[in-house]
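Internal ticket - ligand job 198, zinc ion:
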Amino acid sequence: MYGLKDERWIKNADQIGMKGKKVILTFDDGPSRQLNAILDVLKEKKVPAVFFWQSKILHAQRPWKRVIQEGHEIGSHAHNHKNLTSLTKGQQYKQIKMSVEVLQKITGTNVKFFRPPFGQYNEDTMNLLKTMGLTPVMWEITSYDWKHKSFPGVIIRNVVDHLKEGAIILLHEVEQTLFVLPELIDRIRAKGYEFTFL
Ligand SMILES: [Zn+2]
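stdout (structure tokens):
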């Protein structure tokens, strides 16, 4: 099963009542060593974003305070990036529950959004999210930034060529994405889009 076709997942801001020429930047797999520099770019460009974090790598010394203070949102990307569909319902529960608990304990924020590792989930995942009051969030545009370390310009094209109203854009907290981020933001704005968040 693949989440991009499932209407239960939020992939577009229109689904949560945000109309107009707006897009949402999301960064998966952090908090990474690139986070501070990514936050610098977002701050300079005045762009909000949503960060889906793996709780296993959330150490207290990561700049999570900036993320909150600078108006970004933190969601759960489970605990240690296991493919949830390979786990029992009990194991999935632990992955999701632990991630929410760690994120809330360290950052003090109320975690509302969840994105599954690899975008993979099954009906157990859906039932658990519902029980735990988490909103499932996928994406509409993928940058494939993880595979374009050598040619980061492709990341910009993958996004800008597919822009549409309300689109949630998938990025990762990696070096090549940081490298193209200022230009990516400028090119999205040049096409008349504003940035919003969940
Ligand atoms: Zn991931």
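Auto-summary: The CA atoms of residues 21 and 192 lie 7 Å apart. The longest strand covers residues 22-30.
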